[in-house]
Write a structure and sequence with these properties.
The protein has about 375 residues and is of the alpha/beta class. It has two domains: about 120 residues, Aspartate Aminotransferase, domain 1, CATH 3.90.1150.10; about 250 residues, Type I PLP-dependent aspartate aminotransferase-like (Major domain) (Aspartate Aminotransferase, domain 2, 3-Layer(aba) Sandwich), CATH 3.40.640.10. It is built from 14 helices and twelve strands. The strands form three sheets. Strands 2-8-7-6-5-3-4 form a seven-stranded mixed beta sheet, with helices on both faces. Strands 9-10-12 form a three-stranded antiparallel beta sheet. It has a two-stranded parallel ribbon with strand order 1-11. α1 runs antiparallel to α9, α2 runs parallel beside α9 and α3 packs parallel to α4. The longest helix is centred in the N-terminal third of the chain and has 20 residues. It is globular, with a radius of gyration of 21 Å. The relative contact order is 0.17.
């Protein structure tokens, strides 16, 4: 049976270059914190990976403490949020700005902080656009702003640059965090172009391994002690993330970032063309939930009275893999908050699928997907 993978926003396949880098790192079993030669060899792997990832982020002169390795993008966002909010130097305000469609790794920390007495303002993202009027009204007295670059379910590309500029103008001491897990190597940006103090990225969304992420930290955050560690222990990662580093995973992360940044322009163009091709050939009964500004790799669709899980299993039986939403919330019994925020009804959200591409997908893959969707529409039982 054919295997066609259109769930790249959940995770991506390892490339051969990444596998080689990880296999080589497996031969280095030293602890990066050890001072003997085996430890120094492991530390060198971390240093080279840090450099490659920084260059992919557009940072040419990196202080090592500016890029902190974590176990995942979720952990990196938790460090960004709790680390900046709990820093003593940051207790000058209690308002936090985010959106109504964030990934659970941001939204759930926000709920915790809300329970602790912080004021959480969730900016509307209806239609896939930030409500800039609402943001302008709330931009005074801000402690932290955390806004994702690309929505992981709708593919909406948010105007983070404009949002952070507005916030910094009214609240100069505010810390600005961007969850760029779905945007890294899907959009050209640098920390400076974003106006971000903190940026979350993850390896397994860019053909690297699962179990490793990173947090970019602006040097001013470190200098002025505007961020504190969230995991305490042996003081690894410059005291900001204790725990022995995942050397093998980090080696793969570095290789994926280097490979992805080297082929960025043709990869983005290929994904844009394939996305447009899928949308233009979509069966007429299917509604495409197309944001005004969309990332090149995500298509969200709503089926006509067919539950997303029903069609997902039908496509899977044909060897075609898509998602009914974020992999992190696919087992939730409630409708997707991101799709509700986009403007879908709970019923439509329950009938929606996410198709997410990578540069390895082909026109033939797209044809098979569209054909199978049409078959599914003709044969699957529809809900009343």
């Amino acid at each position: 049976m054919q295997k066609i993978y259109f769930d790249n926003s959940a995770t991506t396949a390892l490339t051969e270059q990444v596998k080689r880098a990880m296999n080589e790192a497996m031969e280095c079993y030293g602890n990066p914190s050890s001072l003997h030669s085996a430890g120094l060899e492991a530390e060198k792997i971390l240093r080279e990976a840090r450099k490659s990832i920084a260059e992919a982020l557009g940072v040419r002169s990196l202080r090592d403490s500016q890029l902190i390795f974590t176990s995942s993008g979720s952990e990196a966002s938790n460090l960004a949020i709790f680390g900046s909010v709990y820093a003593k130097a940051r207790r000058t305000a209690n308002k936090i700005i985010t959106t109504d469609s964030e990934h659970p790794s941001v939204e759930n920390p926000m709920k915790k902080l809300e329970a602790e007495g912080f004021k959480i303002v969730r900016i509307s993202t209806k239609g896939g656009e930030l409500d800039m009027e609402m943001l302008c009204k709330e931009a005074d007295g801000v402690l932290l702003a955390s806004i994702m670059m690309v929505n992981n379910e709708t593919g909406a590309l948010y105007d983070v640059e404009k949002a952070f500029k507005i916030i910094k103008a009214k609240s100069p001491d505010a810390v600005c965090h961007c969850d760029a897990v779905q945007g890294f190597l899907k959009k050209k940006f640098t920390p400076q172009s974003l106006g971000a103090d903190l940026i979350t990225i993850s390896a397994h969304k860019i053909h690297g391994p699962k179990g490793v992420g990173a947090l970019y930290i602006d040097p001013d955050m470190i200098k002025k002690k505007k961020i504190v560690p969230y995991i305490l222990g042996g003081g690894q990662e410059y005291g900001l993330r204790s725990g022995t580093e995942n050397t093998i995973g980090i080696a793969g992360f570095g290789a994926a970032a280097k490979e992805g940044s080297a082929s960025l322009d043709p990869s983005l163009e290929k994904m844009r063309e394939l996305r447009n091709y899928i949308i233009s050939n979509m069966p007429g009964e299917i509604k495409v939930n197309d944001p005004k500004n969309a990332a090149p790799h995500v298509v969200n669709i709503t089926l006509p009275r067919i539950k997303s899980e029903t069609m997902l299993h039908y496509l899977s039986s044909k060897g075609i893999f898509v998602s009914s939403g974020s992999a992190c919330s696919s087992h939730s019994a409630t409708p997707s908050s991101a799709l509700i925020a986009f403007g879908l009804s709970p019923k439509d959200a329950d009938c929606s699928l996410r198709i997410s591409l990578c540069e390895l997908n082909t026109k033939e893959d797209a044809d098979a997907l569209v054909y199978s969707l049409g078959e599914g529409l003709a044969s699957l039982v529809r809900i009343r």
